[in-house]
């Protein structure tokens, strides 16, 4: 059963909901204000690595061999 993310169109509350069946929004209401006007959001996910988080304080190396700027490539 998938978990969907929604945002209330009235109060702006973001929430998740475990949806059974075909994933329809019938009967779905905001848990904060109770209004039925909600919009399904694009879901994000977290990736976990089995590698240690520290690399000895040095920046990761790009495939070209140069140091990456933070956020410049997928290695950091």
Keywords:
mainly beta, 3-stranded antiparallel beta sheet, single chain
3D structure, described in words:
With 76 residues, the protein is mainly β. The chain has a domain at 3-40. Helices cover 0% and strands 18% of the residues. It contains no helices and three strands. Strand 1 and strand 2 form a beta hairpin. The protein is elongated.
Protein topology:
Elements: E1 3-8, E2 14-18, E3 38-40
Antiparallel strand pairs: 1-2, 1-3
Radius of gyration: 20 Å
In what order do the strands lie side by side in the largest sheet?
2-1-3
Query: What is the distance, rounded to the nearest whole angstrom, between the alpha carbons of the first and last residues?
Result: 32 Å
The largest β sheet comes out as:
3 strands, antiparallel
What is the helical fraction, as a range of percent?
under 10%
Element string (H = helix, E = strand): EEE
Number of strands: 3
- Number of alpha- plus pi-helical segments: 0
Return residue spans where pLDDT drops below 50 for at least 5 consecutive residues: none
Helix/strand-derived category reads mainly beta
Indicate the proportion of strand residues.
15-25%
Q: What integer is the average pLDDT?
A: 74
Give a quick precis of the structure.
Helix content is 0%, strand content 18%. It has 76 residues and is mainly β. A three-stranded antiparallel sheet has the order 2-1-3, with no helix packed on it.
């Amino acid at each position: 059963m998938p978990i969907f993310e929604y945002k209330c169109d009235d109060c702006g509350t973001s929430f998740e909901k475990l949806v059974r069946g075909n994933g329809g929004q019938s009967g779905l209401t905001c848990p904060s204000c109770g209004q039925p006007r909600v919009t399904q959001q694009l879901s994000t996910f977290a990736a976990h690595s089995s590698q240690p988080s520290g690399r000895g304080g040095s920046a990761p190396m790009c495939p070209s061999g140069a140091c990456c700027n933070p956020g410049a490539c997928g290695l950091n």
